[in-house]
Amino acid sequence: MKLFIIEGCHASGKTTLINKFKENNKGVKGVKVLDENFYTIDNFECGTQLHQFQWLMNWVNKLKELNKTKVDVVISDRGPLSSIIYNGDKFKHIADEIFKYLIKEGIEIKTIYLKSPEKEEHLKRIIQRSGTLVEKELKYLDEILELYTINCKNFISISSYEELIDIMNFKH
User: Fold this and answer.
1) E-strand stretches of 19-168
2) What is the pLDDT of residues 68-105, one digit of tens each?
3) Does 3.40.50.2300 match the CATH number of domain 2-168?
4) Which of 7, 67, 70, 163 has the fewest CB atoms in 10 Å of its CB?
5) Domain parsing of the chain, residue ranges
């Protein structure tokens, strides 16, 4: 099974890109899309790190399950790198173990970094989502973008749907 993980800052366009992929590939056998919210946790009040850990474990279990079926290609909206970016290095060793495990299971992994749009466009998207933007969020956005820049420098970088399809070498 081939796993394509789309990583990138919030409001960079990952979900839009993945929704376009879903729409253009409806009914194609052997293809599965894991959107960011494939697994929800109702009434979860133990804090974001525990929530993130549970999301990661469910993500791994879902991939294990798909690997046993006739799924050839999985495209995932986020993966373990997001856990590291948004929660600090506490998750780095867990993410490393997850990747080692998935590779051992025969899953071919490609992590793809979706470059963020120009700052003005990026801020417009965030405001569209939340209705407002405060100075604290601007600083946070800059920090997150910097972390993605540092952590994704060795990944394939894209900025469009067409580039994604080229990288996936996806023809149906």
Assistant:
1) 31-34, 73-77, 108-114, 156-158
2) 998 999 999 998 888 888 877 777 888 889 999 999 99
3) no
4) 70
5) 2-168
